[in-house]
Amino acid sequence: RKEVEQDPGPFNVPEGATVAFNCTYSNSASQSFFWYRQDCRKEPKLLMSVYSSGNEDGRFTAQLNRASQYISLLIRDSKLSDSATYLCVVMVLSGGYNKLIFGAGTRLAVHP
Amino acid sequence: NAGVTQTPKFQVLKTGQSMTLQCAQDMNHNSMYWYRQDPGMGLRLIYYSASEGTTDKGEVPNGYNVSRLNKREFSLRLESAAPSQTSVYFCASSEARIFSYNEQFFGPGTRLTVL
What we know:
The structure holds 2 protein chains of 2 kinds. By secondary structure, chain A is mainly beta.
């Protein structure tokens, strides 16, 4: 079983739609949680951290449910420029080092 | 600032050949990392260097060696390339204090094909 699991998609949505991605993780000792964005053939970049209380950054809302070991990302009013792969990332402390564990990503395609 | 740079961008090797992937960062970060990304899988850590002068194995170190040349540079060497090492390789850096999170900044990647 993968340590971080995501639906690979693709999610094909029209501009202006609301879309939600989910992610589950297996290590209950995970400490921190993030969403990274990766454009086609580019490097990953941090989109936002995920806090227990939930957090919002413009059109993006992230939620964490520690009891269910579940993370979500909601994108409102989708733009063409949101088309990318969204990586769910979990941090665990391993051997004195903060190790990042990446999901395989969920691909989003926003069309006109 | 260039951030994290990697060379080469693309490389094709024959089985058994060797090569070194170069990485440099200009953000004065302490920690540097090498990942590989394969289709359908998340990025997997090959090696990391928590600080200048130290290197440690990650999740998939077999077939690779690394050198932390100085604070800026961290290279990844394939001594005898195998088709299973066909992948996209990303270098990353972060400030990375041990008990706190610091964002990792990634380089543009090297696309390696081993025939």
